Amino acid sequence: MEPETSLRRGWTTGACATAAAKAAYTALLTGQFPDPVEITLPGGARVGFALAEWGLHGANATAGVVKDAGDDPDVTHGALLRATLTPGLPGSGVVFRAGPGVGTLTRPGLALPPGEPAINPVPRRMIIAAIDEVAVSLGGSRRDVMVEISIPGGEILAQRTLNARLGILGGLSVLGTTGIVIPYSCSAWIHSIHRGIDVARAAGLAHIAGSTGNNSERAIRALHSLPDMALIEMGDFVGGMLKYIKTHPVARITLAGGVAKMTKLAQGRLDLHSKRGEVDLPALASLAGQAGCGAEIVARILAANTAAQAYALAGGEDNALGDAVAALAWQVAAGVLAPAAVALEVVLFDREGACVGHAPFQPVHARNLRV
């Protein structure tokens, strides 16, 4: 396998929308579309984008750029970011509108108020800066203009994202803080975790639950009768969730996951992806012995191939192993959260959704942490 440094980087939807908007604004003023069109990224780098489409339609100018996410498995790779610019009312400045395939915010707690198009603040600033650059280059100042961003097929692509849970309806979000997509950085997922917490807090929810997968999410929803808005798909990024909650606390936090991933958390890992390492089975066998499992069970766990097999072997021990793992996972997670004023619970589920380990709610105080 090639090292990660050899993977090709790509461009965010925000960068592509900025390039399309700059080309369209240039044509709106001059009748000509620059191709390629060059923009400035937030970090100061200048990059060029080829136009996939362009056209003047009466008073409007439209340009489109196809997103290249590099080697990242991005849901929007290959999507067309289309910008349609129309002269605005005098004094209106730059007004943003969601075209087909771009979502609209419907819940408070995000960076923009409900009713706004899901074009994030950094892409908006990039687009305005690009428009200003064109205006200055032509010897004038920015004119009032409406910027509509659309993504053909975005409504379908959005079904593969967390937008609906965040209250972003009708399509995708235009994202990006650097303009650059770093392969497998999973920054969009972590961004969604943070925004999910923001939405839950804005709604006044006192209890949210982060889950590592669909099975654990269904199980924890049933256990606590939680609404969708309280459910955070943290996946492997438990560290990203906990660190954000530390500075954006909610009264009660549940961490719910499958046995393998929650065992990794108990063993001190905050990134639960398999590429970060597998479960330490000898340590798990030792913990099983400390939890009261018999010597024969401990020996069989030591020879197990997977964490799931280890838990199956310990299944007749009244969840002793699962409870011990949950308690250790609680300690690791609480160590990240402290000194936030939150109460933390950890629950382990098997593949059928049965609870196989539980550390009940406790406040994250120093006296509850092992030193």
Structure notes:
- By secondary structure, this protein is of the alpha/beta class.
- It has 2 domains: about 180 residues, CbiD-like, CATH 3.30.2110; about 180 residues, no CATH class.
- Helix content is about 35%, strand content about 20%.
- The strands form 6 sheets. A 5-stranded mixed β-sheet has the order 4-5-6-10-7, covered by helices on one side.
- Helix 5 packs parallel to helix 7 and helix 9 runs antiparallel to helix 10.
- The chain starts with 9 loop residues before the first strand and ends in an 8-residue tail after the last strand.
* Rg of Cα set: 25 Å
Secondary structural class: alpha/beta
Amount of helix:
25-40%
Mean pLDDT: 90
Summarize the structure.
The protein is built from 12 helices and 18 strands.
Protein topology:
Blueprint: E1 10-11, H1 13-30, E2 37-40, E3 46-49, E4 53-57, E5 60-66, E6 80-87, E7 94-98, E8 101-102, E9 104-105, H2 121-137, E10 145-150, H3 154-157, H4 163-166, E11 168-169, E12 171-172, E13 180-181, H5 187-202, E14 207-211, H6 214-224, E15 231-233, H7 238-247, E16 252-258, H8 259-266, H9 281-290, H10 295-302, H11 307-313, H12 320-337, E17 343-349, E18 355-363
Parallel strand pairs: 7-10, 8-12, 14-15, 14-16, 16-17
Antiparallel strand pairs: 1-13, 2-3, 4-5, 5-6, 6-10, 9-11, 17-18
Helix pairs in contact: 1-2, 5-7, 8-12, 9-10, 10-11
Structural descriptors:
alpha/beta; 18 strands; 12 helices; CbiD-like; 5-stranded mixed β-sheet; 371 residues
